[in-house]
Amino acid sequence: MTYSVEPDAGPGSGLPGVPAGLIAVTGSTGKLGSRIARRLAESGVRQRLVVRDPQRAPELPGAEVARAAYGEQAALLDALDEVDTLLMLSATESADRVSLHKATVDAAVAAGVRRIVYTSFVGASPAATFTFARDHWHTEQHIRGTGVDFTFLRDNLYLDFVPGFVGEDGVLRGPAGDGSVAAVARDDVAEVAARVLVSREHSGMTYDLTGPSAFTLAEAAALLGRTLGRPVRYEAETLDEAYRSRECFGAPSWEVAGWVTSYAAIASGELSGVSSAVEDLTGRPPISLAEYLART
Q1: Over the stretch 77-95, which tens digit does the pLDDT of each residue have?
Q2: What whole-number distance in Å separates Cα of residue 123 and Cα of residue 190?
Q3: Could you read off the pLDDT of 130-158 as tens digits, one per residue?
């Protein structure tokens, strides 16, 4: 599904393209949140950057800074005071990510936030192959349960990650089989988010954000090789091989499972769907893998 509207979505308010009130942005010190905050600032939007470390907050015109971390109720109540719309970027993967998300949502509602724009993951469901996508589903369900207005941006894997899949030996390994992935650029997600945040037209909507087409990891390896000017190849692993090859990093089991199942979700076809949402919302086609590699 490209995007959907919930039957019980509330009526829109305000003029299209005009923010209804103060926007709070989380994660502005990160790669996605900083892109979104910068776009809002360039458009003259008043925003509050909610960060764990104010010293790391970007200096942007029209932006104020408040200190709070996910799950810190008292700090969040202060940081979100008078906020109309909260951009809630998903927290860094952790064993307690869902509980941190839930606590943050509850604090936002208690502070009087009227709408939450949440960065979720394509195919989020309790039975998703990609284990971290299950976290997103539980977070979405909790947001729905509060009765607050919402918009969910379900991102596919980021194009930015693809070059990092390649090992030092020039091999891209993973249990993705012959499956394909419609990976999306962070720049496209940021542009969509910035537009969604300033309009009530997206009340109750869920958008799948993808690239213009799906590609296999073998195709990605070939394109990377041509771009880098050196051999790059894809080697399909079994699930057992993938777990064994990654357990040597000493990461906790839940994290290893996330790494491995991201590839398994490609193999299952769960990440292959292509959406028109990026072009529909920004007026331009999404960035392809070839375009991304040419730029970077």
Answers
A1: 999 999 999 999 998 888 9
A2: 20
A3: 999 999 999 999 999 999 999 999 999 99
Domain extents for the chain?
A: 16-156+185-209+274-282
Q: Tokens in use for 120?
A: 């979720």
Task: Give dist(CA 82, CA 80) in Å, integer.
Answer: 6
**Which token pair is 28?**
């502005």
Amino acid at 22: L
CB 163, CB 293: distance < 8 Å: yes
Per the rule left: phi > 0, alpha: psi between -120 and 50, beta: everything else, 62 is: left
Cα 95 from Cα 25, distance rounded (Å): 24
- 3-state class (DSSP) for residue 101: helix
Within 10 angstroms of residue 136's Cβ, the number of other Cβ atoms is 26
Round to the nearest angstrom and report the end-to-end CA distance of the chain: 31
- CA dist 230 and 170 (Å) reads 8
Question: What is the 8-class DSSP label of residue 114?
Answer: -
Q: Distance between CA atoms of 263 and 148, rounded to whole angstroms? A: 34
CATH superfamily of 16-156+185-209+274-282: NAD(P)-binding Rossmann-like Domain (3.40.50.720)
Question: In angstroms, what CA-CA distances link 261 with 115, 176, 188, 243, 251?
Answer: 32, 9, 24, 10, 15
Pairing mode of beta strands 63-67, 233-236: unpaired
Q: Which helix (H) or strand (E) holds 216?
A: strand 215-216
pTM beyond 0.90, yes or no = yes
- Distance separating alpha carbons of residues 271 and 288, to the nearest angstrom: 15
Give me the helices (H) in 72-152, please. Answer: 73-79, 97-111, 131-146
